[in-house]
Design brief:
Blueprint lengths: L3 E9 L3 H13 L4 E4 L3 E7 L6 H9 L7 E8 L5 H8 L4 E3 L3 E4 L10 E4 L12 H10 L8 E5 L5 H8 L4 E6 L2 H13 L5 E5 L10 E7 L2 H14 E13 L3 H10 L2 E9 L2 E8 L1
Parallel strand pairs: 6-7, 8-9, 8-11, 9-10, 11-12
Antiparallel strand pairs: 1-3, 1-4, 2-3, 5-6, 12-14, 13-14
Length: 281
C-alpha cells in the first residue's frame, strides 16, 4: 500500500483564485492531488515520488500573486488507501447548462446532451476549475470530424474525451504525470471513447503527426515555453487554445504567440481566468 506525504500550504490572504493558481503550479512539479482548506491547500504526493526541495522553495519565493504570502509544512499521512478514499469522496457534478454534465458514480444528475463520467482519483482536474468549465463549453460546440487533436496536460482526460465525443478522428492526450496518464486511460474506458491515444511525457513525445487543433490548459510559463513546439506541430489553418492563467497574463501570452506567427481570433474569461484561441496562418 502506497504511503503519502501531505504538504500543507498556508496562504495569507487566502482566496479561491490563489488556491487554484497554487494547485496548477503544484501539479506541474509532481503532486498527485489536492484539497482546498480554510487556510490554503493540502497537496498530496506518494513517498515514491521525490519533490525537489529547491524547486519548491523557488515556487514559494516566486509565487505569481505577489500580494499572497505562502508558507508550508510537511507531514506523513496515516497508512491507508488514499486513492480509494479520494474516489469514495467523489466531487460535486460540474454542469454546463443545456450542454454537459461531468460527474462521478456517487451523485445523481439532471440529464444533459453530453454526460461524461469521471472516476475522481484526484481533486485537481476534475472539471471544477474555471478554465476547464470554459473549455468544455467551447469544445463541445465544435465539430472535430476528421480532425487530429491534442490535449496537452490532460489531467483526468476530460478535454480529450470532449473532442472525441465531437467526432475527432484521433486525439492524443499527454501528461508528464504517470498518475494522470493512468487516470485519463481509465476515464476514456468509462466513457467508451476509443479514439484517444494517451502518452506519458512532455512536448518531446509529439512527433507522430501534425494536429488540426491543440488545447493546452496548463500554467502560463509552460505555455509560453512550449509555443514553438505547438506551432511546429500545428497544421496551417489549425487552432491553438490555451488557458490556465489570469486575464492580466493575456498580453504576455499573446505577444509570445504572435512572435511565433499565430493570430489571436478569440478570447474569453470567467472569474478572471482567461481562454485564448489562436490560428496558425
Amino acid at each position: 500500500m502506497e504511503k503519502y506525504l501531505v504538504y500543507s500550504f498556508r496562504m495569507e490572504p487566502m482566496s479561491d483564485d490563489a488556491a487554484d493558481v497554487l494547485c496548477a503550479i503544484l501539479a506541474d512539479v509532481g503532486f498527485d492531488s489536492f484539497q482546498q482548506t480554510d487556510e490554503g491547500v493540502e497537496a498530496y504526493v506518494s513517498t515514491t515520488n521525490q519533490i525537489n526541495v529547491e524547486t519548491l522553495s523557488e515556487l514559494v519565493e516566486n509565487f505569481p500573486l505577489s500580494d499572497v504570502q505562502l508558507t508550508y509544512s510537511v507531514g506523513e499521512l496515516e497508512n491507508k488507501d488514499w486513492n480509494e478514499e479520494w474516489e469514495q469522496n467523489g466531487f460535486e457534478p460540474i454542469v454546463v447548462p443545456g450542454l454537459c454534465v461531468i460527474h462521478d458514480t456517487h451523485h445523481s444528475v439532471e440529464p444533459q446532451p453530453y454526460d461524461i463520467l469521471i472516476r475522481p482519483r484526484m481533486a485537481f482536474g476534475s472539471g471544477s476549475h474555471e478554465t476547464t468549465f470554459q473549455l468544455v463549453e467551447l469544445l463541445l460546440k465544435e465539430d472535430f470530424s476528421d480532425k487530429d487533436c491534442l490535449d496537452m496536460g490532460c489531467g483526468t482526460g476530460i478535454l480529450a474525451i470532449c473532442m472525441a465525443l465531437r467526432g475527432a478522428k484521433r486525439v492524443v492526450a499527454v501528461d508528464i504525470d504517470e498518475f494522470s496518464v493512468e487516470n485519463t486511460r481509465e476515464n476514456c474506458e468509462l466513457n467508451q471513447v476509443t479514439s484517444v491515444m494517451v502518452k506519458h511525457g512532455d512536448t518531446s513525445v509529439l512527433s507522430d503527426f501534425p494536429f488540426d487543433f491543440i488545447v493546452a490548459n496548463i500554467h502560463r510559463n509552460i505555455i509560453i515555453n512550449d509555443l514553438p513546439c505547438y506551432v511546429q506541430q500545428l497544421r496551417p489553418g489549425g487552432r491553438l487554445v490555451v488557458s490556465g492563467f489570469f486575464t492580466e497574463d493575456i498580453p504576455a501570452v499573446q505577444q509570445a504567440a504572435e512572435q511565433q506567427g499565430l493570430k489571436l481570433i478569440h478570447q474569453q474569461a470567467r472569474n478572471n481566468w482567461a481562454v485564448l484561441v489562436f490560428v496558425n496562418f
